[in-house]
Amino acid sequence: MKHLSHSLPSHSPLTPLSLLLFLILLTSCGNKHIIDEEHTFDRNVWNRFTPERFEFNIQNIENYYHIDVTVAVDTNVYRYNQFPCAVTLVTPSGEERSFRTSIALNDKGRWRGEMQDGYRVVTGRVRSYFSFNSKGVQHIDILQNTSQYDLEGIHSIGLNIYKGKIDYDSFD
Questions:
Q1: Domains in the chain and their CATH numbers?
Q2: What is the distance between the alpha carbons of residues 151 and 55, in angstroms, rounded to a whole number?
Q3: pLDDT value of position 32
Q4: What's the Cα-to-Cα distance from 165 to each of 36, 63, 107, rounded to whole Å?
Q5: Mean pLDDT of all residues in the chain?
Q6: Are 159 and 51 in contact (CB under 8 A)?
Q7: What share of residues in the chain are helix, strand, coil (percent, to 5)?
Q8: Which residues pair with residue 102 across a beta bridge?
Q9: For the purposes of burial, counting CB atoms within 10 Å of the CB of 143, is it exposed (0-12), middle (13-18) or buried (19 or more)?
């Protein structure tokens, strides 16, 4: 009797290239951030008339987005409980939308946020469930809005825009 040997296709373990492609696909599926960027200041000083510009691209105007500003301060130098700032969105058509906000940093002697690399880092929401009305490259300018010409103790300012999901069940 003749014995026939059937060889099954061998399944080799993931190659480095296929593993890399899989990881890229996996991380891109959950990426809801439009921009998550931080700008640092020389000597921890921010001039009142020098805006920090954050540029990003909006492709889906049907989504809602959260817009957060993060500030990192040197608590030994920064002497205010709040961080007031002006946030201006400039659309591809040149339309401007401005928001003024104040991020609470210190509440009755207790600093908010967390310490990172020697700085107190606090995030504040500028807008919730914000909708952009046009696709394309846009930018947000952020200005410190204090009475100080050169504001000391500001290490960095950051902008985070990410997709938000409305939970209609929470509106009971």
A1: 34-165 (2.60.120.260)
A2: 24
A3: 80
A4: 18, 8, 30
A5: 85
A6: no
A7: 10, 50, 35
A8: 84
A9: buried
pLDDT at position 15 is: 54
Q: What is the pLDDT of residues 40-92, one digit of tens each?
A: 999 999 999 999 999 999 999 999 999 999 999 999 999 899 999 999 999 99
Query: Are the CB atoms for 80 and 107 separated by under 8 Å?
Result: no
d(CA 15, CA 26): 16
Among 10, 58, 86, 52, smallest CA distance to 155 is for 52
Task: Work out the widest C-alpha separation in the chain, in whole angstroms.
Answer: 98
What value does the mean pLDDT take over residues 92-109? Answer: 94
Alpha helices in 30-169 (DSSP H): none
Give the percent of the chain with pLDDT over 70: 78
Residue 80 — φ and ψ, nearest 5°? -115, 155
pLDDT above 90: residue 130: yes
Q: What is the 3-state secondary structure (H, E, C) of 101-126?
A: EEEECEECCEECCEEECCEEEEEEEE
Amino acid at 30: G
Closest to 155 in 3D by CA, of 113, 126, 127: 113
